[in-house]
Amino acid sequence: MRIFIASSWKNKDQVFKLAKLLENAGHSVYNFADFSKRTAAPIDEEELNSSFHSMNFTGKGYRNFISQIKYTDIINENRKAINECHLLILLLPCGLDANIDWAYAVGKGKPTILCGVPYIGSRCLNHQFADVIISNMDDIMLAIDKIKNNYAAITSLAVPTTNNKVEIHVSCSNFDEYGGKDG
After folding, report:
1. What pTM, to 2 d.p., does this model score?
2. Fold annotation for 2-139
3. DSSP conformation class of 122
4. In this structure, is the dihedral angle defined by the CA atoms of residues 177, 112, 151 and 109, taken in order, positive or negative?
């Protein structure tokens, strides 16, 4: 199964730990923090935050800042990986960018797992859209099995289309063949 991990740069060590756990279980993992496996140029998250917070944006300034090619390349690579994944795991706590990656996956009809809890004082009621919510990584393999079983239970709703996409949902036996719920 192709899995996208979305989280905060502050959780980088936990992201690598989760990626290794999933890879050892035979999954293909997209780890946003592992630039050795990405084509986009690495960014310095501290430099990004420092330069961003020191700016007083007016007019087109914000759009121009986030539209720099070094950031656009990363966002496009993330979007492509989310489109191609079978499952997205949102590792909490995290910030806005990771939550937007997660929400994009939800909107694309991808199954999602929320793992962890938000920062103190932070909340997102829309996290209810997740297929599975767990409190820590110890339960991640059980959560993945639950996702697989949920999609296996609705096999009768899977209908391949002429362009090899799948309408509605696919069973686990077809998960790799069709690339997840929405192809």
Report:
1. 0.76
2. Rossmann fold (3.40.50)
3. -
4. negative
